[in-house]
Design brief:
The chain is of the alpha/beta class and about 230 residues long. About 45% of the residues lie in helices and about 10% in strands.
């Protein structure tokens, strides 16, 4: 019997035991096999600086793409969002896209707290708060219970998460030259492809991101050419 989904903010607090992600998701280091089909999901919490939010989201997407390339995985789709992770219903859009791809597709996040963020978390007052069991379950219900993997080990603590995030940020910064075409492409291409999955129109994506229509056509065509023939 499937438990009725409730928003993480209003769910009963009777089950207060808190869990690391290792009880619910897998470590991509061991779970991802060459030629596996994956759906990439990135999320950043909103701040008062939208430009910085998008920069951090682009770095997260870059890390996912790097892992995919190193492991020879096949990307079937992706979703990028700047939103709070407390209410897991933001994942319903991902489920809608994943359901169209078939049951063999695995879902890849960068870090465990990109999958599930506890309602009780506060960056200053409660920075080490972990999700409750029901919060993990709600997130997986919204995703439709696929195989969920993270690049950072699911057992990582919040302090380990912060160290990994900072390390990846420095690696990305070392590879980019501010203002270069390569830098701009790294930041915009993942978002353009994610928007295309939602809007279904290259013209709308080009208008939304202020990118040349021909560039969006190229990104979509390159992505489609890399997909396996079904």
């Amino acid at each position: 019997m499937v438990r009725k989904f409730t928003c993480a903010r209003s769910v009963s607090l009777r089950r207060k035991k808190r869990h690391l992600g290792k009880n619910f998701i897998q470590h991509a280091e061991t779970a991802a096999m060459p030629a596996d089909e994956v759906f990439l999901i990135s999320r950043e919490s909103p701040t008062n600086n939208e430009k910085d939010d998008l920069r951090r989201l682009a770095i997260q997407d870059w890390d996912l793409d790097r892992f995919v390339s190193d492991r020879h995985l096949v990307v079937r789709g992706r979703l990028s969002r700047v939103c709070s992770g407390v209410d897991p219903r933001w994942l319903l859009k991902a489920k809608e896209l994943i359901d169209k791809l078939g049951p063999t597709v695995k879902v890849l996040f960068q870090r465990p707290n990109r999958v599930c963020r506890p309602a009780a978390f506060h960056p200053q007052k409660r920075p080490n708060e972990l999700p409750r069991e029901d919060e993990w379950e709600d997130a997986l219900i919204c995703l439709g219970h696929p195989t969920v993997m993270t690049i950072l080990k699911p057992s990582a603590s919040n302090s380990e998460d912060a160290k990994y995030r900072d390390k990846v940020g420095k690696e990305a910064a070392a590879l980019r030259k501010p203002g270069s075409k390569k830098s701009r492409r790294m930041e915009l291409e993942p978002r353009a492809l994610a928007l295309y999955e939602e809007l279904g129109s290259e013209r709308k994506v080009a208008r939304a991101l202020n990118v040349a229509l021909s560039t969006v056509y190229y990104w979509v065509k390159t992505r489609d050419d890399q997909r396996p023939n079904l």
